[in-house]
Amino acid sequence: QVQLVESGGGLVQPGGSLRLSCAASGSIFFSRYAMGWFRQAPGKEREFVATISWSGGSYADSVKGRFTISRDNARKTVYLQMNSLKPEDTAVYYCNAAVNSENYWGQGTQVTVSS
Q1: What residues form DSSP beta bridges with 90?
Q2: SS3 94
Q3: What is the DSSP string of 34-72?
Q4: Closest by alpha carbon to 68, among 84, 55, 47?
Q5: What's the start-to-end Cα distance of the chain, in Å?
Q6: For 16-45, b where at least 16 C-beta lie within 10 A, e where not — what string?
Q7: Cα 112 to Cα 29, 40, 46, distances in angstroms
Q8: I want to staple 108 with a disulfide (CB 3.0 to 4.6 A). Which of 52, 53, 76, 92 is the partner?
Q9: Parallel, antiparallel, or unpaired for β 102-105 and 10-12?
Q10: Which strands form 2-7's sheet, in the order they lie side by side?
């Protein structure tokens, strides 16, 4: 079993920055997992934001050039650096770990972009 705990969310003004973290624990060979971030805004479906694996990272078009995903395998942690934040980035952000048929989610952290 894998546990994922997100942190770093909060309230930020438009144009500001936040850095989200997701720490993994439990029986996990962390480097094997593709780690990702998803988000869900009120009244909308959960959507893909970014993912990182051994082959590199990929991003949703809506965040390309503004968000950067990274990982520290020794710390079993994945990060999401979010710059130039916009009100439409407001959502609950969820961490995901996936390999083969295994798929795990964190509890989410709220990000609110508002003046």
Answers
A1: none
A2: strand
A3: EEEEEEE-TTS--EEEEEEETTEEEE-TTTTTTEEEEEE
A4: 84
A5: 40
A6: eebebbbbbeeebebeebbbbbbbeeeeee
A7: 33, 12, 16
A8: 92
A9: unpaired
A10: 2-7, 18-26, 77-82, 67-72
Q: Which residue has the tokens 């993912």?
A: 51
The amino acid at residue 98 is A
4 CB-contact burial (10 Å; exposed 0-12 / middle 13-18 / buried 19+): buried
Q: Pseudo-torsion of CA 82, 84, 51, 7, nearest 10°?
A: 20
Residues 6+ apart with CB under 8 A from 33: 2, 24, 53, 97, 98, 99, 102
Q: 110 is written with which tokens? A: 């709220």
Task: Give me the tens of pLDDT residue by residue for the chain, a chain 115 residues long.
Answer: 889 999 999 999 999 999 999 999 987 788 889 999 999 999 999 999 999 998 889 999 999 999 999 999 999 999 999 999 999 999 999 999 998 888 999 999 999 999 9
